[in-house]
Amino acid sequence: MSGAEIVIRELGQPGDLGWVVMAHGEIYAREFGWDTSMESVTAGIVADYATSHDSSREAAWIAELDSRRVGCAFCVAADETCAQLRLLLVDPAVRGRGLGARLLDECLAFARRAGYRLSLIHISEPTR
16-32 and 37-52 helices cross at what angle (nearest 10)? Predict the structure, then answer.
């Protein structure tokens, strides 16, 4: 796995939305002892994005290694001038390779193109 290239692509293939929910639930349970409440929160965010996002102001990405999903990030509108980074996740098996930074860079580049003021980008942490 160490020599394979990680590809970042836009979210939109069948299974992407479900994977985001599943991965958050499994990783947060394993690493932080959370119950299904993380899946519930994630499912709500994913459902909102899937049903009502404005593609000119919001985007999401999936990172893949050998066609296997290993990370994700969402950039959504918090308000007219502020973008919000949501659901940034990197599979523990591929951490330490700069993937989190690459996903963040995708979000920042998109936010710039969408006209957000970068000084106002809000990064939130999940609440229990």
Answer: 160
